[in-house]
Structures are given as C-alpha cells and as structure tokens.
C-alpha cells in the first residue's frame, strides 16, 4: 500500500503570512501558495518556532546585548538531537537567532507595552478561514487616555531579506485582523503599532497609510481563493 504524503484541507484556510505572500505574488506563484495551503505535507517540516520564541522574548525584555542571543543560538545548535531531522531543525533555528543577533540593533519598536503573542481564533473572511498568530502584542495609552493596540510578526528567510511589498501587505493584515477581533479592553488598532520585522535584515515595517484599503483588497482576494480552492489539484507527486 502506498504511503500517504499529503492531507487535503477541505475548507479554504490560509495563514496571515501566506495571505501576504499571495497578495505580493505573481499569478503563477499565487496558485502555488493556494496549493500549499490546501495540500499539507504529512512529512515533518523545518520550522522556526524556537527561534521566533527566542527573538520575541529578547524584544519583550528589551535585550540589547547581541552576545546574549549568540549564546542562545549556540545553545539551540548544541541541543541533543534524536536524529538527522532534529539536528537540522536545531541548526536552522540557531542560524535564525544568530543572524538576528547581528541586526537587532536596527530594530526600534514604538514606545508601548510589549506583551507575549498569542493565536487568535480562526475567523472566516469571504469563505476563507484566516489564521492569525502574532509573535508579540503591543499596547499604549494616548494622552487622552485612549487605548491603542498593535502586534508584531516576525519573518525570516535564510540569506535574503523580506520584500518591502510583502511586508506592507503583512502589516496591513495585522491591523485588519486586530480590527476583526473585538478587543476585550476596547483598544483600537493603530498603524504604527502593527509591525512586520524582517529578522534577516533587522528592518521594521509598520502598517502603511493605505493599510485599511489594502486589507479590504485582501478580503476581496479571499473570495477569489475560496472560489478557486475546489479546482486546485494536488501536487504531481502527492499521494492522498
């Protein structure tokens, strides 16, 4: 019996990160992104979860000494691995943290309270369930005592920086998604507090002035994704 390689996700679903990639992509690449969301590989995938947690904690604690992160990178690299995949996972996460340590001085977060990130409940937008899990949450009070909210999402790709266009879309998605979720404290999302950070370059990308209309375009794109979802075939080598 042939072993399954992929799981088919029947209901259209996309992560904020991939939605940003979709908005910045060519038509051919968009099809590839939707295919990757619909057909999830069963094999373990290299993830940056440990690196993202390490970097987010450093930002939350206002860590300024790059050596602290370099030491943490080496600690991750030298963790006991149960096999080749675990060793590669450790290496990948260590490289992420080490690279960020070399650019962390460039990162300037706004003057706000920095809180741990969280996974928000999935919400449907024009037929697509959107997943939103920022790495940090931001809060600040204005001079008139109004509460403003925001969030930080970390991006990293080895050897290359994040495109400004993609970062703009992701930050627009941040402010849009915060607006979709009712805030328990009645905080209003603020563009300057909705930030995508490229951990390869240290560049920060707050939501643009056009972020509200950009998010409206993302919502419209979700309808297109929902319509094309049933007609996206599995990858050529997939066994379902």
Q: Summary?
A:
With 240 residues, this protein is α+β, with helices and mostly antiparallel strands. The chain is built from 7 helices and 10 strands. The protein has helices at 16-24, 27-38, 49-60, 66-77, 84-103, 164-180, 211-228; strands at 6-8, 13-15, 39-41, 113-116, 123-125, 128-131, 136-141, 147-155, 188-198, 204-206.
Written overview of the protein:
The structure is a single chain. The chain is an alpha+beta fold. 42% of the residues lie in helices and 20% in strands. It is built from seven helices and ten strands. The protein has a five-stranded mixed beta sheet, with helices on both faces. The longest helix has 20 residues. It starts with 5 loop residues before the first strand and ends in a 12-residue tail after the last helix. The mean pLDDT is 95.
Structural class: alpha+beta
Radius of gyration: 19 Å
**SSE string:** EEHHEHHHEEEEEHEEH
- Kindly state the percentage of residues in helix: 40-55%
**What percentage of amino acids are in beta strands?**
15-25%
Poorly predicted tracts of residues: none
Q: Report the oligomer.
A: single chain
DSSP helix count? 7
Report how far apart the termini are. Answer: 12 Å
């Amino acid at each position: 019996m042939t072993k399954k390689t992929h799981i088919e996700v029947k209901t259209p679903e996309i992560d904020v990160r991939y939605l940003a990639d979709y908005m910045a992509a060519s038509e051919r690449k968009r099809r590839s992104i939707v295919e990757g969301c619909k057909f999830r590989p069963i094999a373990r995938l290299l993830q940056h979860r440990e690196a993202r947690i390490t970097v987010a904690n450093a930002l939350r604690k206002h860590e300024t000494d790059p050596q602290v992160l370099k030491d943490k990178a080496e600690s991750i690299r030298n963790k006991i691995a149960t096999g080749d995949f675990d060793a590669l996972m450790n290496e990948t996460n260590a490289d992420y943290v080490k690279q960020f340590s070399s650019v962390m001085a460039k990162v300037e977060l706004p003057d706000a309270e920095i809180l741990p990130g969280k996974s928000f409940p999935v919400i449907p937008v024009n037929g697509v369930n959107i997943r939103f899990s920022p790495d940090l949450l931001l809060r600040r009070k204005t001079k008139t005592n109004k509460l403003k909210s925001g969030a930080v999402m970390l991006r990293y790709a080895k050897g290359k920086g994040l495109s400004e266009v993609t970062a703009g879309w992701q930050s627009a998605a941040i402010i849009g998604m915060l607006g979709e979720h009712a805030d328990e404290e009645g905080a209003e999302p603020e563009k300057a507090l909705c930030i995508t950070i490229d951990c390869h370059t240290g560049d920060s990308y707050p939501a643009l002035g056009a972020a509200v209309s950009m998010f409206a375009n993302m919502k419209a794109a979700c309808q297109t994704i929902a319509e094309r979802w049933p007609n996206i075939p599995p990858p050529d080598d997939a066994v379902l």
